[in-house]
Records
---
Amino acid sequence: MRALTSICATAALLVSAGTTLAASGVVTSKGIEIKGKTAADVLAKFGAFCAIKDWHPAVAKCDESKEGNDTFRTLTLKDGGVIKEKLTSKGDEGYSYKIVESPLPVKDYMATFSIKKDGDGDNAVRINWLASYQAKGKTEAEAKAVIEGIFDAGLKSLSELAAK
């Protein structure tokens, strides 16, 4: 039940941040719980827009840049691929972004990454990653498998690093 509540809260964050889920397409939502850490500690270490380079095993480099008032990150992947993403909103518990350019089999990709206190105690953290998108050049099932693989690898690594 707690996971469902977290997913609904993250979806509400997407909508309230001005990011709407695609009317049709695919939604991928993954989350993990980390015990023995505070949300503030995990946010400080892993919550910055370009911190993904520190915890996602596929990311070799992250460069953050400004274009006017907009913030972007350019992810250079270990396989040589490049993904450019635009920060669409930032809050106390995370951020929302959309993909601008990517070799991934998706379009209209919008996501929210959040880190928040989980439950009544101070030493439990819930990390959620939620994205909506449409398949591009692949079936919806194939696109979903790619995004789920990215989320799973990142959250597994994040869980291991945060537990240290």
Note: The CA atoms of residues 22 and 132 lie 6 Å apart.
---
Amino acid sequence: MNKFGFTLAEVLVTLGIIGVVAAMTMPTLISNHQKTVYVTQLKKVYTELSQAAKRAINDNNLVSLDEGKFTSYNPNASKEFLNTYFNVVQDCDTSLTPCFAESYKYINGTAFEANEPLAAVSLASGASISVRDNAFSYQSDGFHGYMDLHVDINGAAPPNIVGRDMFYIQLYSDGKVAEHYDSYVYDAIESQFEQCLTGDANEAYGRGCFSKIVADGWKMDY
């Protein structure tokens, strides 16, 4: 009875092929997994922001936040809002560090410099939030005021890259979380997305990536 098997050479060739394929595919698999983790963390912060705004509205019997004590007319509004409606583990006051990393960059490697905040905190979830500007104010024409925010979904931990773990977001006075209150056509989102990737002298706060992720169905396809 004849017995058939693989020679040592055949086994080595097969293992070599498997190794090459693994070496080619593993980086992509790891990258895609990490992007999924980033988006999951971003969506969690998105939910926290929306819930916090709605709680503040309900607790103070408001129609929207531009009517209450969190308006831009109150110099302590940003700090009070963050510390009241989020699970804060560290209050960095008007300094980014240590809630945020000491330096950030865009995806293309150029430096990103965030404004000194009106208030900055680290959350129990691991994220950090800074208020870049508080523009809550009542307007009779129906304009929704907003807070300009920078969010680092994993705090000061790496990679500290705009569009990966650092995002520009606006929280509107009715609780909506977006970069712009009105829906933008996809072409406009694509245009601002370029600012997120490369930075821009006139738009140096990292906008564009959050809108892109939401428009793509909560996927980081870049």
Note: The chain has four helices and eight strands.
